[in-house]
Amino acid sequence: MATNTVDAESRYVNMGFEMEQRPPPFNPGAVRGLPLPGFSPEVKGEKATSNPSEVVGETPEYVMETVPTPPPKPKSLKKKCKNYTVTAVMILLVLGLCTGILLAYYFLSPCGGGDVMWCGDGLCVKKEQWCDGTPDCTNGDDETNCVRLSGTGFHLQAYSRSRLSWGGVCADGWTDEFGRQACERIGFSSGSYVSSGQAPVGSSGAGGFMLLPDDVKPTANILTNFQDSDTCPSGKIVTLRCIACGIKNSSRSERIVGGHEAAYGTWPWQVFLRDSMQQVICGGALIAPSWILTAAQCVQSVPEPSEWDVYVDFYNDVKTLFSNAKEVAQLIPYPQYNNKTQDNDIALMKLKQPLQMSDSLKPICLPNVNMNVTAPQPCWIVGFGRTSEGGATSSSLMEAEVPLIDPEQCNSKEVYNGKVTSSMICAGKLAGGVDRCEGDTGGPLMVEEDALWWLIGDISWGRGCGRVNKPGVYGNVTHFLPWIYAQMKLHNDA
Description:
- By secondary structure, the chain is an alpha+beta fold.
- The chain has a domain at 128-241: SRCR-like domain (Mac-2 Binding Protein, Roll), CATH 3.10.250.
- It contains 6 helices and 22 strands.
- The strands form 5 sheets. A 6-stranded antiparallel beta barrel has the order 17-18-19-22-21-20. Strands 11-12-13-16-15-14 form a 6-stranded antiparallel β-barrel.
- A hairpin with a 4-residue loop joins strand 3 and strand 4 (155-160).
- The protein starts with 74 loop residues before the first helix and ends with a helix.
């Protein structure tokens, strides 16, 4: 983690410096839960009249009894006729193109349009089969991401296949059994479940609610039994804690903007990643007992799970790290990661054995949808990376505060000139001096909200370390939430 400004040009290819939704937008190509977009082209134009016989010339004044020669058409009329003809041809071409697109969509698309949705595995299902509790897609896409958490209050929402929108879940008749089921459907294991609670409806009912009937059985499938409702009889909606996350220890160091050594246990979710050949060093964040979130560029450089060592619950001195390494079972980089632009730079690691949580080892919270985190909100980064551009890596875990930067400002000509995509966020000081650096890649970008710590980014790239107008760029974790949960759900039993 850099704490000074260095003018010399440098470029770290493997660790994400200057390597640069909507995933692509998570695509979510990995997760689909919304209807396919339709087409409604509108072509505006002006119908041309190009018949020369319709143009009337001036009547000549004859002074001799000879056969008159017809006067030439004014040049302005010729030019207008030509322009109208070109316009008409262009309109016909545009209409033909739009017609071709529509025909291709309805006849060549996987599902042929209409009231059906594509599973992504070659099958098509009706919209009313989406999120109905019964898998109709071979890969289960229709039952993935049907429930989610919203805001820092962890409000539970479910997808309505009739309204094709999200609605808060009414607390009427809700139990812990339903809560455990909902957490598993999100992507968490049943063993990490904490509790269900209630919150006032407030403004969360603008899009309607999802309600369980009074006679529903405790073991019933919630997706099968959810009903659309305009109101909640109890006036309460469900809050859901699927995992105890984001809780820091009380002991902490005096933090100095610009980088400072972190006290032991201050960041209990920070992990240290190293390949067996000791060529690649990365950071990561613990998001569940078996799951670590890091950068795709780290995973791509060493694609074999057996080649990675994971270190957790360590003292800050790097010399004490390299014992009791945890083994990795799976590496899951985002499918559309681009190693040239660093677009979609995010990956997951699944450990062979789940970790035992303790005071010094805890997961950080994944951000929920509808969280209002905007520039210039202060964030924190930590890591064992270089403390200056071209310098040595740190022997101690370092921490630093970096404010969020507005995407438009980060994409300005003076900063990164349009290289920051929707899958990225910027944080740092434009004046330089505080930044991530080589060796920090994959580590967490964190923000504190409502007394909890949230993982909003993973360290990805930047030009140099601590340079003026060259802040750090991070993977936008919120952008990838559907994909993250889909992978956790798919591989939790693997």
